[in-house]
Specification:
The chain is of the alpha/beta class. The protein has a five-stranded parallel beta sheet with strand order 3-2-1-4-5. It starts with a helix and ends in an 8-residue tail after the last strand. The relative contact order is 0.16.
Length: 155
């Protein structure tokens, strides 16, 4: 965890989409992928959501406009601060700085858990533990949405 934290501290100083996606073409990539990813989600109206690895909020900004409430979590404080600055005015979001391996929520807290490019940073043991906890946090009939597109973690 220390190595990953140090890597992201170095790559989160400006809290830009380029830093977060580790790509100088991130604006264009984000513009092209956002509509596709959002189209895969269920109707968000009235849902309580947990967004893991929320980063600077490139999805949060869309989710808060439709969901009843979004809890956005990231482990880099600079990313959490940027997300809060850009999306806090919606009034239906909570912003938490935490390592996902240490998160705890009551049973059946969320209708939808959304994760994009996060699981690849976890060990097999951490992934198993987080998956078990995520499933317990979901309400009956809830949705678990995760997207990974890399074979190797950054850093």
């Amino acid at each position: 965890r220390r190595e990953m934290t140090e890597f992201w501290q170095e790559h989160s100083r400006e809290a830009t989409v380029e830093e977060m996606m580790l790509d100088s073409s991130a604006q264009l990539l984000s513009k092209n992928e956002l509509p596709e990813i959002l189209s895969l989600l269920p109707n968000l109206g009235g849902l309580t959501m947990l967004e893991l690895g929320a980063g600077i909020g490139r999805y949060t900004g869309h989710l808060v406009k439709k969901a009843r409430h979004v809890t956005a979590v990231d482990f880099m404080q600079t990313f959490v601060d940027k997300n809060r600055q850009d999306n806090g005015h919606h009034g239906n979001a909570e912003f938490i700085q935490s390592d996902v391996t240490r998160l705890a929520f009551p049973l059946h807290s969320f209708d939808l858990i959304f994760s994009n490019w996060l699981l690849m940073y976890l060990t097999d043991e951490e992934l198993l533990s987080l998956t078990e906890r995520m499933l317990s946090w979901l309400r009956p009939g809830g949705y678990l949405f995760f997207r990974e597109s890399c074979f190797h973690k950054s850093g």
